[in-house]
């Protein structure tokens, strides 16, 4: 007998972590630094690129998210000042640690120096000294609000899943009460997820959650994420609107047929393309929380409308045709400019 769909309102469990999350979360990748690779990001900021203006915008979006019932918030050490912006907002609004669930990530260092035209925006290094340094930094900002600490973009190439000293350090922190997860990127996401499920220290699985990309264009990790969910890991989905490619602003002639299909289904269900894309992701039975990457209150409200979309089998069947092969999808993503 099929499992009935979960309600999209209220709170649900993040796997077996003991954390409660809303179906829709908010990621601050586009709000913690002046440059990001989402389509039209520079236009979204509308000149709000200095620290104070960007923090004010971040707080506006966080306020809109809170009013909409969002209770999961995602940041990272490499998201510029996202941890600080979130921490200041939590304190200013008097939000207690038990009232929201917060995840952050380690493994990338922000190097852009608050410049949009920087040659390198972040540097990846999954090494023990980086974990120790960034763990102290994250705890300084988020303190008791931190619920989940994730390896940022774990890959087979980085060696993070085979570094026994590094894994032992995380295991020691886990014994002290830290929940560990990992995020993935790239065409080998499914392989990484399955490899991470096998990482144990003294017979105990190290990772409590996984954050991965799944969207209508890039669904290749579907089966692996279902396996992770079945094993008790919390599953967080990022890039559900494909960094802007699954929104009304994407009009690339190369993707005209896909866009037409998306627009037709959005019109049939009386919604927008971004809300349709998010609703498709929310419909995955293994998805505990799906992140909005909204950079403005208006985008946040449009994303939240996904919770009301009357998703059906017709939409699922029609939109299966927009999927791309994983390799070209990720090549295209890597070519998107930071603005």
CATH architecture: Alpha-Beta Barrel
Query: Roughly how many Å apart are the termini?
Result: 48 Å
CATH superfamily: NADP-dependent oxidoreductase domain
Rg over alpha carbons: 19 Å
Mean pLDDT: 96
CATH class: Alpha Beta
Q: How are the strands of the biggest sheet laid out side by side?
A: 3-4-5-8-9-12-13-14
| Number of helices, where a helix is a run of at least 4 consecutive DSSP H or I residues | 12
- Report the sheet-strand fraction: 15-25%
For the largest beta-sheet, the strand count, sense and barrel status come to:
8 strands, parallel, barrel
SSE topology string:
EEEHHEHEEEHEHEHEEEHEHHEHHH
Low-confidence segments: none
Q: How many discrete structural domains?
A: 1
What name does the CATH topology carry? Answer: TIM Barrel
Helical amount: 25-40%
Structural class: alpha/beta
Write down the overall geometry.
globular
Number of strands: 14
Task: Give a short synopsis of this structure.
By secondary structure, this protein is α/β, with parallel strands linked by helices. The chain is built from twelve helices and 14 strands. The protein is globular.
How would you explain this protein's 3D organization?
The chain is of the alpha/beta class and 339 residues long. The chain contains twelve helices and 14 strands. The strands form four sheets. Strands 3-4-5-8-9-12-13-14 form an eight-stranded parallel β-barrel, surrounded by five helices. A two-stranded antiparallel ribbon has the order 1-2. Strand 8, helix 5 and strand 9 (180-183) form a beta-alpha-beta unit. It is globular. The termini are far apart. 47% of the residues are buried.
């Amino acid at each position: 007998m099929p499992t009935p769909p979960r309600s999209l309102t209220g709170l649900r469990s993040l796997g077996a972590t003991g954390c409660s999350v809303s179906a829709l979360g908010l990621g601050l990748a586009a709000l913690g630094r002046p440059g990001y690779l989402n389509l039209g990001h520079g236009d979204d900021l509308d000149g709000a690129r200095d620290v104070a203006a960007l923090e004010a915008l971040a707080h506006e979006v966080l306020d809109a998210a809170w009013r909409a019932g969002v209770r999961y918030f995602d940041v990272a050490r490499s998201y510029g000042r996202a941890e600080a912006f979130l921490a200041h907002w939590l304190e200013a609004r008097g939000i207690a640690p038990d009232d929201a669930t917060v995840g952050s990530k380690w493994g990338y260092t922000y190097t852009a120096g608050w410049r949009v035209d920087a040659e390198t925006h972040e540097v990846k290094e999954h090494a023990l000294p980086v974990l120790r340094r960034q763990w102290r930094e994250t705890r300084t900002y988020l303190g008791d609000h931190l619920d989940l600490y994730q390896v940022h973009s774990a890959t087979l190439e980085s060696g993070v899943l085979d570094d026994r000293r590094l894994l032992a350090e995380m295991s020691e922190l886990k014994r002290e009460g830290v929940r560990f997860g990992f995020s993935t990127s790239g065409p080998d996401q499914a392989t990484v997820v399955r490899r991470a499920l096998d990482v144990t220290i003294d017979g105990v699985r190290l990772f409590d959650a996984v954050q991965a990309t799944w969207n209508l264009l890039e669904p290749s990790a579907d089966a692996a994420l279902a396996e992770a969910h079945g094993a008790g890991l919390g599953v967080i989905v990022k890039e559900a609107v494909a960094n802007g490619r699954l929104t009304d602003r994407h009009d690339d002639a190369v993707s005209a047929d896909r866009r037409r299909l998306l627009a037709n289904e959005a019109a049939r269900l009386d919604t927008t393309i971004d809300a349709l894309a998010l609703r498709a992701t929310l419909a995955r039975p293994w998805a505990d929380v799906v992140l909005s990457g909204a950079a403005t209150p208006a985008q946040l409200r449009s994303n939240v409308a996904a919770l009301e979309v009357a998703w059906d089998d017709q939409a699922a069947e029609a939109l299966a045709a927009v999927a791309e092969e994983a390799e070209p999808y990720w090549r295209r993503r890597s070519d998107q400019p930071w603005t």
